[in-house]
Structures are given as structure tokens and as C-alpha cells.
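Interim report, section 4.2 (structural modelling).
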Amino acid sequence: MTDLKHSSASSATSGAGGATSPLDAQRRRLRLPFILPAVIFYTVFFVAPSLASFVISLYRWRGAGDEPEWLGLGNFLRLFNDDIFRGAFVNTLIVLLVVGAIIFALGFFFTAFVAEMRGKHLLRALIFFPSLVNPVVLAIAWGFILDPTRGALNTTLEAIGLGNLKQVWLGPQLIFPMILLTMAWMTVGLFTVILMAGADRIPVSLYEDCDLAGASIGQRFRMVTLPLLWEVAAVAAVLWVITAVKAFEFIYAFAGVGTAPPRSTWTASVYVYMQGFGSQGLPELGRASAMSVVMLIVVGVLVVVLRRLMSRQKVEF
Amino acid sequence: MAVQFADQRTSEPRPRPRGGTGRLRRGTPAPLARRRTPLRMLGMAAVWLWVLFNLAIFVWMLLSSLKSDGEVFADPWGLPNVWRFDNYVRAWEGSDLGTATLNSVFLVAAASVFTVAIGALAAYPLSRLQSRSSNVTLMYFVLGMGVPLQSIVVPAYIAMAGLNMTNTLGGLFLLYVGFSLPFTVFLLTGFFRTLPTRLEEAAALDGCSAFRTFRSVMLPLARPGIVTALLLNVVSLWNETLLALIFIIDDGRQTLALAILGFYGTMLYNSAWGALFAGVCIVVLPMLLLYLWLGKNIMDGMTLGATK
Amino acid sequence: MYSFKASTGRRRASIAGVALATAALLSGCAVFQGDSGASTDGDGLVFWSMWERGEPQSEVLQGAIDEFEEEEGITVKVQWAGRDVGTRVQTATNTGDVPDLVDDAVEVLLAGAEAGVYQGLASVYEREIPGEDQTVADVIPAEYVEPYINDDGEPIVVPHSVTTTSIWYDGNKLPGVAEAPPATWDEFLALVAEAKAAGQTPFAADGTIPDYNAYWLGQMVLRQMGPGWLNDAAHDETGEAFKDPEFLAAAERLQQLVDAGYFMEGYQGSKLPAQEQAWAAGDADYLMMGSWAPLGKEEVAREGASWRTFPLPLADGGVNSVEANLLGFGIPTDAKNSENAEKFIAFFMEKDRIGGISSEANQLTPRADVEPPADLVDVAAMLESAESAHRYLDGLPSELPDWWTGVFLPADDKLFFGEITAEQFVDQLSQESAEFWKNNG
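Predicted structure of the assembly:
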């Protein structure tokens, strides 16, 4: 499984000869001027702000004109007692787990079947397309579909005689589940394509062996595809953690714009926005930063845990 | 593209991880594998249902954009009674979608090109030098992929305020470059590693300068990877909303995502639903076209990072 | 490597690359403009408005701006920032890069003023209105502005519109009600019960907007118990204030409407403006809404609709307080051209110009000598006859935003959606309020 080992590859320059070759010398010379612009931009406009949020999180601060007041860990302590933050934090975890579970279940499912279907590329493209569309747009569209009074879903149910299945889709009980489902719908394409790309690299000979042994599609998937996809799935899982924690636009626009989304749907990233920028009252930049620091730590921990859980003996083939 | 990689492979100990032939040859099971078990039929039916559902959603969006405001709700699945192409005019003029589209096009193009340019510069030595320091540098970039965007929002706002660059597309540009770089460098480093070294060696022996080698030897070779990186940046920046929402106040400078949010806001007061969907389609269609045109690059690129 | 050239994929790719690079070059200048669209020193005037381009108010204001530019020779740069203008000004203040003039809902202006974002406007009130022999103070009734003063006792707003929250209906569909609107809670209850029995849907509500949901209980409490009651209770750090039996009675009245199934099916999850439009089309009798309710209903309204309104009828012991909410101008503390901003405000207060708010945008102006729009005759009368006035939702959304969104609205939504009883509501509110103050006190 040489392909999958790429990131740790060390052989790319193996053909270049000794350290004294002109090429190597040249490469060393060009290293700094080549790397520096990216390092500088990245450091100044991304790393520095990320680190600065740690500092800001230690103060109470309402923005320019306001004297920052040292709180130490005060913002963090308050977060632990803050029901809204706890709710938003739990919602983020729910998004992470529930949507993640749906995405990976469907992703594996599609991977197992689409590869064998005619028009596979077209199917893959159609499964993928929602991932390309601005989440704001998708949120607007789903709002129209799910509106209980005149949305397309209830109207359609009524029209085909299933009126008794009509629900208050955006009501307090269902709105968050609906957000989860539609988020899964929106994201599943990307992860399916990643898994399928991984599956494409599995040598066909293994499948032929399976066929000779008379394995069913389920067995084939379990015995060949799944184990050989494991590493790709691990990377995809990390990618999902990152995506899930920063999900913002979709939820922000889901219930409508002009007012805050209902609190029951807030995730941590929505709350950061509300605290720092979105509410009618005074911004609490320190608290907003404290929340984002917590989320940053959560991402870090989750990524480490995931890598631990999912790392296992590499399957060579 | 398939052929060119087959050529290269002879000079490389490892096969390329992506590319058409490899996929076709390795991924498709032998025809005799196809058996029609009930489970398989069911699974395939489910796949088709899902795909048709996706299609239906986008057809519905497109149809709604051509209906009168009332029809959007009254008859969600029917064809428009009268095809209202003027919805697009209403959307375009009514809420400054024109300006916003231009802003988005310029901003996204500038930020993606610049990101990929300096990202490629950095990725090249990172992919070629196996020193500890370059590994550390690469890790430094990779770590950035895990930072949620909201973490940089507050400090970035304060910093940009200090530079007098809030509410400017320039400020947004700098942040876009900053947060796009980790993935770009990661992707391109991986890509450069798959490229053969022989030609560089030849160029170096011929006395080419380092930059010249990069420009006239590496860049042409790396073009597919660079295009992929560009496209992925274009897609993610085209859809970026959080930073724009916070940084841009001036309605002459809003990006398309903001314009559509604002437009959606006015709908609550004037109910021009048809025009709203026209606006929605104006946001979606460029991505659709890009996708039809270069879709394979986009998908390959999105998966390149994960499958290597 | 030149042998790769033939690949079409590559050609496409290079076309894409060239196209993108060209766009980037073209955009170079546009993208790096440093000008931030906010206030600069000099003669201009930078105005950020709460309206979106294309709304009638923005057209009225634009008309005045054009005249102002012509007559005063002051260039006005206007941003139709939309309803989020308040947060934008707040955010912009963090950069010191603020506009000279803002128009927004008064509650948002007041919250800003308390944070030092907006300045006192006493000097504007002393200004003479061009072409009229009176000052701004002469035409804006003092009682409107009274609740909105800063620590120095100066008003922080010059209003151009007055709104209130009341029960809207179609007088053409309900002629009996138009003739004699219900005056007491019992009459009102009888009226709705009758409508329900006749197969009508009494109320429409777009339940996904929590603030709108709060209009019901807000009106029930404030009209009954008087201005400031809710605000005081919210500030009670023990949460005990909510245990007042009168408050419970108000909540019970709401529960009664909910339990009786008077709200249109699906209201809990209805997206604005779905049910509002259904109401306009005649599918429901009443809508509890601000005085913008009739706006934008032309296309969806029932034929012959005539918009009428009455205040939420009182139970015994009510004080007949009516909400008096304002939309108006504020001037940021850091404005660089506040002189020009003041000039513009006085200019706009001239009878015909502010009159556009009434004649074009169909909203009530604070100037008594401007004819109210036809749809709002009832509103004008209601404000006239009120015994006292309260702030929009008692000022809580902007004064205690965290309490409002974190404590009040979730509890209110549950009550409004029929998930909890009035008693449970009171318990939850009182308990969570106490907890809130423990953490935020």
C-alpha cells in the first residue's frame, strides 16, 4: 500500500545523489527565499491571531475605547457555569457525532455500491455537488422546503395523500434534528468522494480473489474494502472534526436572518459570533475568545484521540 | 493526463497516487463480479434515490428562480406558468448582486492565485529537502489546518482595525491568504513529492538558477496539482461567509455570500421569492459551471490530501 | 516534459490559470483600496442606515439626501446596511472608523449610547428646521424621547418613525370587529372562541422568530402591569420577582390561547413571513405585530383587505400602557462630521421630508402635524389615548441581551409553543434568572 504511506515518504530525493550535488546545494540556497513569503503570511495573518486569542481570552474587553480588564481564567470559569455555552458545546458535539455517524455510514454505503454501478462518475459527481454550494444558500433552500406552513415538503406530502405525515419541521423539537440531517446531506458528498478515492486504490486482484471465493458484496466490503480504507477513513475523520467544529454559516442562516437563530440550535461557533459580533448588546470579545480557545483545545484533543483510536497496524498490499 | 503520468512512472520508484488509468484499472471489479442479489438491488436503488433527490433539489431551485413570487410556494414542483427571466434582472439590480459578484470574483481570484503562488514556492523546497527543519516547517503549516476559523476572528479583527483595514477587501484578502495557506502548502508539498527529480537535476547541471529551475521545470510539471489547489481555494473562498460577515460593512464591498444574506433579509419585507431564488442561482451557477468544466480536478484535489 | 502539452486537461487548466491570473491583476487596485467607507475628516457626511436598498424608507431617505447634497453642497455617502447596522456600528467603533450618522431602532441606539458609542443630541433639538420657523424640539413630542436619554440627560435619538405592537386584522373581513373592537380580555376571548368554533383560525404567528413570540407575553405583562415591570423583574437577582401572581395570571392567559389551539397549525416552526402572509391572505384572523404589519402585503393580501388594529385587550386592573418604539437618527461619539450630521437631521425633520415616511413608507412619524398613513390611523389613535407608554419589550433585548436570549426567550418559547404550563414557565424563569445573576452579577 505504497500510496498511502506517502506523507511519511522520505525517498523523493533519494535519486539526487550526495549532499554535495549542485542540485542539493541549489535547493538549500533557495530554501529561505522560497519558504519565507508563505511562512510570513501564514504567521502574521493566521498563527499570530490564533495565539493572540489566548491572550485576549484572559481579559474582559468590549472593544476599542474600553480598557481591557485582567480576568485571568475568569472568562473560562464563567463558561463552565454558562448554560448557553454548555448547550452550544453539547450541540457542537452532537453535530460532530450524529452528523459524523450519518456521513460515514452513508459514505461507506455509497463507496460499497457506487463503484459497481454503471455511470459511476456521474453518480459520484451528483453525490458530491452539494459540497460545492455555499452553505448559506443551502440553508435558505432548506428553510423553504421545511417551512411547515407552505414549505415544499409539507405541500408535497399533502399533495400525494400523505398529509398525516406532515410535521412542524422547524418547530422547537425538530429544528435541530433537521439541521443535523440537512448538514449531513450537505457534507456527505465530500466524504463519500474521499472514501471512494481511497477505495479506488485497492487492487482489483483482491476483489477477484473474493469473487473466486464466492463472497457476497457485504463480505467483500467487510473483508477487503473496509480494512484497506481504514487509514483514509482516519484522515477523513480528522477532517470532519475540523469541519464540524467550525460549522457556522449553515446554522446561522437556517432559521432565517434578521434575528438570532433560536438558542436551541446554537453551536459553539454560533455563540462565538453572537458574543463577539452578533448581538445587540455590547460585544464581549474576551469571552468570545475564551470560547474559541476552548474549541481549539477540543479540536486538538479530538484529533489526537482519533488518531490514537484509529491508528492500527497498517495493512500492506 | 493519464498518459503523461504513465511516462513519469518509469522514472519513479513509486506509482502516482492519482490519475485516471490507475483508478480505472484498479477500482473496477471484474465484470463477472456483477451479480444481482436482492441486497445489491436494494443498495443501488438507494444510491439512485439519493442522487435523484440531489438533482431534484437543484432543479427545484432553478425552477423557483423562474417563477412568480406566488408560484414558488403554491406549486413547488410544477413548471412556471410564465418563465420569469426578469427575476434575474430583479435580483441583479435590486440588491447590488452585480457589485457583489464582481467583488467576489476579484477577491477570490486574487486571494487564490496569491495563496497558490506563495504556497507553491514554499511547497517546492519543503517537498525536496528532507531536513529536520523542513519537516518542522511542514508540520507548522499542517497544524494550522486544525484551527477553527472562529479562533482567529477576534484578534484578526483587532489587528485589522489597527491597520485600518477592517471593512476592506484588502483586509479580507490578507486573512483569506493566511487561512488558505496551510491546506495549500500541505496539498502542494504532497503533490511535488510525487514529481520526478531527474529533470531538475539536469537543469541544475546545466547551470540553471534555482528560481529558473522552479519556474521552467517544476511548474509545468506540477500544473495539475497547482490547478487543483487553485480550484479548491476558489471553491472555499467563494463560499466563505463568517469573515466577510464580520469584516465588511460597506455594501459596495460585500461579497456574494453577504449580498445573498442581505437579500434574504429584505425578502422578509418584500417577499420577492422568485428573485431570491434567482439570487441563489447566481451564487450557485458559477460553481456549477466550474464544476462541469473542471470537476475532476476539484474532486481529485479534495481527496488528494486525505488519501495520501 | 514538453510532450505533456497535448493533454486537453492541461490546456483547460492553463486557460483557467490565465483567466484567474488576469482577474487577479485587474482586481489588484480594487482589492487593495484602503478607503474604508467610514467617516473621514472634511466636508462629507457618512450615513449608515438600517434599511436595505429598495425598501421604501431607503427611497425616502435617498430623496432627502439628494436634496441635501444639492442645497447644502455636502456630499453624503450612504450605506444601506440593513437591520444589522447596530452591530456593525458597534464593531466599527472598535476601529475608530465610524460613520457620522446612523439610523436604527432606538433600543439599539440606547444600548450603544450606554457603551459610549453614541453622543447626546441636545444640540440637534435646538436646531432650527430649514424653511420652518421652529426647532427640532418644537416638532418632536418630548414624551417620545424621554426614556432615551444618556447620563448627561441628553436624548440620544431624533426619531423619524414611531411604531407600536398591537393586534392586526382585516377590517374588511371582520367588519364586526372593525365597528367595535374588543375592549376587555373577556370580550376578546369570546370573540376568538366564536371564530374558532366557526372553523376559523384565530391567530397567525411565525414561531421561528423568538422576539416576535415574546410580543404576546410582553404585551400581556406590560399593558397589564405597567411600563418597566418586566425590566425590573429581569434585574431582580433572586428571580423572585417573577413569582408575582399577576405575572402568573398573564402567563396563564397566554397559555389559555395556546391550549385552546387558537394559533395556526405549524406556527411553532413557521418561518417569517409564511404565516404573516397567510394572515394577510385571510387564512387567520389576527396577527400580533409591530405597526409594520401592513407593509409589503399588497401582493399576498386578500382582496379588499383593509388593515386595522387594536391593542391587546386588558383584563381587570390593567393600566393601558402602549408600546412606543422609535426608529431614528443617532450620531456616533467618534463621528468626524457631526456638524453635518446634525444639519442633515434638522433638514430631514422638515414636514414634507419626514412626511415621506408616512406617505411613501406607510409609517407613523413623531411629528403630530404629519398626517398618519391610512393603514395606521388606528395606531395613531391608540398612541394618543394611551395612559402610559412602554419601551419595545421593555428595553430588555438591548439592555440585557444575554438574559433576554439566554433566559427569557427559551422559557417564553416553551410557553408559547405549549410545551410547559404557565406555572412551569414562572418557575423556570425565576430559577434561571437567579442562576443567571449568580454568574453574571
